[in-house]
Amino acid sequence: MAKIFCVANQKGGVGKTTTTVNLAAGLAKLNQRVLLVDLDPQGNATMGAGINKAGLSASTYEVMLGTSDVATARQRSEPGHFDVLPSNRELAGAEVEMVELDNRERRLKDALAVVDKEYDFVLIDCPPALSMLTLNGLCAAHGVIIPMQCEYYALEGLSDLVNTIKKVHANLNPDLKIIGLLRVMFDPRMTLSQQVSAQLEQHFGDKVFKTIIPRNVRLAEAPSYGVPGVTFDPSSKGAQAYIAFGAEMVKRIKKM
Ligand code: ATP
Ligand code: MG
């Protein structure tokens, strides 16, 4: 059975999608079977995995509304060697349309149950909001990976996310845990980065992943080629860090 992880942080532009796509590709390099679920109407993970979000015949939207299923809607990321449940802006409508549906927080969980056995990892790229879509991600997952930039405002808003996770754990999904905080876009030359990083370790202890993802321009360039950074330039520092993070995750799930 697959271990399911949400990559979530309601702050925008903190590296959720870059983390989801490159962790998926990094895990695939380690021979793990991976499904990436794009749960963001922006469709950035879809594009970053090399799939054209404009021409989707079925997507996360139809799967959430129950008019398609994961096995039909998924596509292969050829450069990344993983499967993708793709999305585009249509998914924004699901937020409203789901209000009328039964079990609306568990639509994604139920949809994933059908393909669970085919994967080692399911990685869910969440939108930058604590919305019904994100709630579906949290209800479906065993754990949350929180990417964070080590800057002054990083900790602000973290308590909202942690409280939401606690509520989901208490009321909807007793399996849910914070797996860890991932330091991303890290610049070791900045004293502030070092300070915030040390603060995170102090507060959160082993909930902070050992792997640190550096700021690396190759990771930022890769999406415009529709290729995960890990495949685009495997020897770059960013790619190497995400492969190391993949190895850290493989180790972690053995303990779960
Ligand atoms: P959103 O909240 O809009 O979904 P996000 O949290 O998914 O954003 P990303 O899209 O992954 O964030 O990253 C934001 C920007 O930062 C992108 O332009 C991305 O290419 C860049 N970026 C992410 N990680 C790195 C990194 N380690 N080094 C350099 N650039 C990065
Ligand atoms: Mg994103």
UniProtKB/TrEMBL annotation:
Pfam short name (any one): AAA_31
InterPro entries, A to Z: AAA_dom (IPR025669), DNA_Partitioning_ATPase (IPR050678), P-loop_NTPase (IPR027417)
Record-annotated AAA domain positions: 3-178
Protein name per Swiss-Prot or TrEMBL: AAA family ATPase
Organism: Duganella fentianensis
